[in-house]
């Protein structure tokens, strides 16, 4: 079929299999250009492996230290006349490349929150790898069906205590406007967001893997978080999602305890703000990202998910002397360049003056929009989007 972008709100409904495969290749080439990660992981489970930070973590492990990887994801399979989602095509492409390069890569497709998928992943590890030495937890989801209570929980992106008014951008139209987001009305909204994006599911995963005996000696697990600048605190750090991230941090000692027999270690890594399907759904944040990109690109310190994942492995989780540098709260910080004083001071200056009229000039809104469409395999200059492509792309390990 001929595949062109079709959007609804902030989401893109179509995906291009060749464009997404090229994205995966570019990430692989980046890691290859950087060289090996000495002492890097060898057998890796990535939960949320098909897009964003999870996909990049998988690629950094596979191509940085030759790791065998099992990726858990959910996504839409393609059908005649209907494209798959990006995660599906990315996973198919990654498995193909890995196979060509002699790297083990298999995927588990389904709801990562369910016990069935956890047990299927544990069984696959046991059968093919014996154990894992790294578990990356990189889920971003709006809902979670709790397998214990059977309750369906929904997360919200809201401030707590008071309404939050600030600028926001419609990145498709390039217009800046003011938005007021009402705070949560009930504690339940906070609790439910914690249920979806907090540490409970991470803990269930480690429990299942521990019981199955598939945690290797000195296993590490890492989950991803975000803090960001003060201007987004009401909607992020101090909002409902921020409470879920605090819960993730609170889960770390429990996981360390669960993994003590194998001398395991759990970490929360605070990552940089980036264009992903998840972050584009948060109000206010895309305007911040478009200003941040401009400044970080000017300073030559811009990173995408693959640069972040590689640096996380090389300079944090698998350093030459084995020490894992953390902040005063025990968190890994790979948002260090984003949070540099000079970067934040310049973003803040631009934030104050940003309008629809000057946006194209003072921000990297074009880069934002471009990267957003790239997530779905569009805006690739090497592809003719008027040419028919086969939308049915199988994932080798799921056949
Ligand atoms: P993303 O949407 O690109 O990736 C989410 C992944 O989760 C996908 O692989 C998806 O298939 C998978 N997933 C979601 N629900 C699932 C389910 N029920 N079962 C199986 N798989 C499921 O998002 P991302 O931005 O890469 O986010 C990953 C993590 O990184 C999140 O914890 C997020 O908060 C964090 N983070 C994001 C940013 C950012 O700016 N994007 C910054 C710092 C931290
Ligand atoms: Na991810």
TrEMBL record:
Keywords: Fatty acid biosynthesis, Fatty acid metabolism, Lipid biosynthesis, Lipid metabolism, NAD, Oxidoreductase. Pathway: Lipid metabolism; fatty acid biosynthesis. GO terms for molecular function: enoyl-[acyl-carrier-protein] reductase (NADH) activity; NAD binding; trans-2-enoyl-CoA reductase (NADH) activity. Its EC number is 1.3.1.9. It catalyses: a 2,3-saturated acyl-[ACP] + NAD(+) = a (2E)-enoyl-[ACP] + NADH + H(+); a 2,3-saturated acyl-CoA + NAD(+) = a (2E)-enoyl-CoA + NADH + H(+). Residues 82-318 form the Trans-2-enoyl-CoA reductase catalytic domain. Residues 2-79 form the Trans-2-enoyl-CoA reductase-like NAD(P)H binding domain. One of its GO terms (biological process) is fatty acid biosynthetic process. Belongs to the TER reductase family. Monomer. Involved in the final reduction of the elongation cycle of fatty acid synthesis (FAS II). Catalyzes the reduction of a carbon-carbon double bond in an enoyl moiety that is covalently linked to an acyl carrier protein (ACP). HAMAP family: FabV_reductase. This is Enoyl-[acyl-carrier-protein] reductase [NADH]. It comes from Rhizosphaericola mali.
